[in-house]
Specification:
This protein is an alpha/beta fold. It has 2 domains: 2-9 and 252-370, Aspartate Aminotransferase, domain 1; 14-251, Aspartate Aminotransferase, domain 2. 38% of the residues lie in helices and 14% in strands. The chain has 12 helices and 12 strands. α1 (14-26) runs antiparallel to α7 (237-250), α2 (36-55) packs parallel to α7 (237-250) and α8 packs parallel to α12. The two termini are 21 Å apart. The structure holds 4'-deoxy-4'-aminopyridoxal-5'-phosphate.
Length: 371
């Protein structure tokens, strides 16, 4: 099997899985139970939470654990928007559906929402952002690394621009950047951040929302007082500790893995550039973990299944929307071409990919010309 869909999800790291099993066996008590086993679990939970905050230098932020990044994005955006029903909201045309669809729903409720345009590389229009920021704006939500093309958004500049408006909260979905790209900004300069464990060799079923301690999020879920009432309910301590393990193991390796994957990406890109029937959509300056290409004349789904016959796994775009046969929204926003946006596949890489894997993929793609 040749797996090139690491953006959709990653295999669980064996040490992370061991941690999960150990904690699940030994500390299964409810972290809110008063007895000593419960209290031990709770102490372990708080230790893991503090460790994660420390590693990411987010000590002055709260961290609530969610089921995934989708839930964290929803809690962040609704949590701010519902506090200020008249507020103006700004996002982009290329957000992940777990951000984009929340804004669409708020728009239906009557909120003013601005969707920033992107250029041919997928980079947001900072002049448009500057024009749209005003005293009514309450929330700006812009992803760091785009999950379809790997485009890296200018978060550093956005932080600087928003500083002039103390009322505005900045939310950044850092799911595809964390432990993959070295940021040129500090996480602590962002008000709300979303992460997901299964994108960094952790388990599925856990993500997190960091938010500045002075932010009082409007509640979406009602129940116990667990997790500041933002995400009530019984915690799976083993998932929390395993996520901590994944961050502890892979965050310090960001640069090392980046350098290797960058070389892999350059090698792959160079070979694919020689295929006349392919258009490369990902910008060269983007995250090397993602290479998005189009095959004008062949449906993206057909390519996925053709490669699958050779046990090569790639994606047509976001796994969450891959069953929907419509132009891929990020590719369309960048290229304005329906052809390119319906004939696209996403190849996503990892430090686990070898040059032999890439050669196998290159050969298989070469044969597609004749499909
Ligand atoms: N944001 C981005 C940028 C993503 O790539 C994904 C996963 N496709 C998500 C959010 C949603 O993550 P999860 O599966 O943890 O809900």
């Amino acid at each position: 099997m040749k797996y090139f869909d690491y953006t959709a999800t990653t295999p669980v790291d064996s040490e992370v899985l061991e941690t999960y099993i150990k904690v699940q066996n030994e500390y299964f008590a409810n972290t809110t139970s008063l007895h000593s086993l419960g209290q031990k679990s709770n102490a372990f939970f708080e230790k893991a939470r503090e460790e994660i905050k420390e590693i990411l230098d987010l000590k002055s932020h709260e961290l609530v654990f969610t089921s995934n990044a989708t839930e964290a994005n929803n809690l962040a955006i609704y949590g701010i928007a519902k506090k200020y029903p008249q507020g103006k909201l700004i996002t982009t045309k290329i957000e992940h559906p777990s951000v984009y669809e929340v804004f669409k729903s708020l728009e239906k409720e009557g909120y003013e929402v601005i969707y920033l345009d992107v250029d041919e590389k997928g980079i947001i229009d900072l002049n448009q952002l500057a024009r749209e920021l005003n005293k009514d704006t309450i929330l700006v939500s812009i992803m760091w690394v785009n999950n379809i093309t790997g485009t890296i958004e200018p978060i550093k500049e956005v932080i600087r621009m928003i500083r002039e408006y103390p009322k505005i909260k900045l939310h950044v979905d850092i799911v595809q950047g964390l432990a993959k790209v070295v940021p040129n900004f500090a996480f602590k300069d962002i008000d709300l951040l979303t992460v997901s464990a299964h994108k960094i060799y952790g388990l599925k079923g856990i993500g997190g929302l960091f938010y500045r301690s002075n932010i009082d999020l409007s509640k979406r879920l009602f129940g116990s007082s667990a997790q500041y009432k933002v995400k009530p309910g019984t915690l799976d301590l083993a998932l929390v500790v395993s996520m901590c393990k994944a961050i502890k193991k892979f965050y310090p390796l960001t640069e090392k893995h980046y350098e290797y994957v960058k070389e892999l990406n350059c090698y792959l890109r160079k070979q694919l550039e020689s295929y006349q029937f392919i258009v490369i959509n990902s910008p060269i300056e983007g995250s090397p973990y993602i290479l998005n290409v189009s095959f004008p004349g062949i449906n993206g789904e057909t390519i996925v299944h053709t490669l699958e016959a050779k046990e090569i796994y790639v994606s047509t775009g976001s796994a969450c929307s891959s069953k929907i046969k419509k132009p891929e929204k990020t590719i369309y926003s960048m290229t304005k071409s329906e052809i390119l946006a319906t004939t696209t596949i996403r190849i996503s890489l990892s430090h686990l990919v070898t040059y032999a894997d890439i050669d196998y993929l290159i050969n298989a793609i070469g044969e597609i010309k004749n499909v």
